[in-house]
Amino acid sequence: MKIGFVSLGCSKNLVDTEKTIGIFKANDYQIVNKPEDADVIVINTCGFIESAKEEAINTILEMAEYKKNKCKYLIVMGCLVERYKEELIKAIPEVDLFIKYSEYNTLWKQIEDLLKDSKNIDKYKNFDEVKERVISTGENYSYLKIADGCSNRCTYCAIPYIRGPQVSRKMEDIIEEAKRLVKDGYKELILIAQDTTKYGTDIYGKPKLVELLNEICKIKDLHWVRFLYAYPETITDDLIKCVKENDKICKYFDIPIQHISDQVLKRMNRQSNGKSIRDLIKKLRKEIQGVVIRTTVMVGFPGETKENFEELYNFLKEVKFDKLGCFAYSKEDGTPAARIKEQIHPMTKKSRYNKIMSLQQEISKKNLEKQIGKEVEILVEEKSFDGKTYIGRTYMDVPDIDGIIYLNTDKNIEIGQFTKGTVVDISNYDLICN
Prior knowledge:
Elements: E1 2-7, H1 11-26, E2 30-32, E3 40-45, H2 50-64, E4 73-78, H3 79-91, E5 97-100, H4 107-115, E6 141-145, E7 147-148, H5 159-163, E8 167-168, H6 171-183, E9 188-192, H7 201-204, H8 209-216, E10 224-227, H9 237-245, E11 252-254, H10 262-267, H11 274-287, E12 292-299, H12 306-319, E13 323-328, H13 346-369, E14 375-383, E15 389-393, E16 405-408, E17 418-427, E18 430-433
Parallel strand pairs: 1-2, 1-3, 3-4, 4-5, 6-9, 9-10, 11-12, 12-13, 16-18
Antiparallel strand pairs: 7-8, 14-15, 14-17, 15-16, 17-18
């Protein structure tokens, strides 16, 4: 049977999809890229915010159309199913099997029962220990999940209700996987978790990210390693020193601050405050030359006043983050923030979102212009359609989130190799090099 996959949502979800693909492949199923070729279509869903839920529903309905032709079975798994399995069963009868996130350790048994094709059930009882992962991000980089779930309990976030409290992987298992990935040719490893800076606290009694990074950096032939989703209150001096002194670690911090107003941060149940965030940004820029700081902020949180928003706007205007993502608050079932009476009107949220993104567009342009004339190291990842330009990334760019590099050169460069280029121009969020 031929199996097709659709993965929605975050990179952590993508890793789960890759493991599921790996299980199918290890059991001699053929993996196909086009849904019209598939006998079985598997969709891994996101249920984090309203827009993600809508995308998931639309994708399920779209894939269900293929059951009119070749597709025999439609399987839906993941976060949306964890939250709304019973409702989905009633609403979309075209789906043959729904698998909740909390049911992943019976995932393969459920699939085999559906397909009536019993093979290696015992081998896949513990989903967390599955090693047959098929990387879907190309040949240059791979995500490396170091923990799942979250124990922070921010009042707006549904993740703890979907994926439970933080569960860190054992360090030796992560290092073993990292070595396999590098041996397979991956040049860059991207460490991910809902909160990477708290890695290890649940199993070792204290944060172990610094130790983990130091061990991973010992792997020969690994060129870049970076970590995403570092909460501001747990970025320690030891972590800053680790990033500063290790050449393999990208000088890149992804710090979701969400807001700068103490009033809003308290309502969000965030552990940082305006002063600690400001002090951290200053420290990072002082200690690490060339550091790139990315953040995410949320507008329209319940009770956010005009003054709260203006404080955030003025802060962003002053600090000038290198990269920034903005989200309008989404009211999520079961979260404490959904019960707050002072919900913000959708038009107000949209207006505030537009103001932030317009500001950041100006800031980003000026930040990129500062790169003109500088020499940068580039990971070459592909060629343009006309074959005249190489496309790649610098340490300043996370795949699918940040910008890219267009490199114009007469040199013949092998895809997947590192080279140097000089920035000569900018284009939107991208750099042009010679």
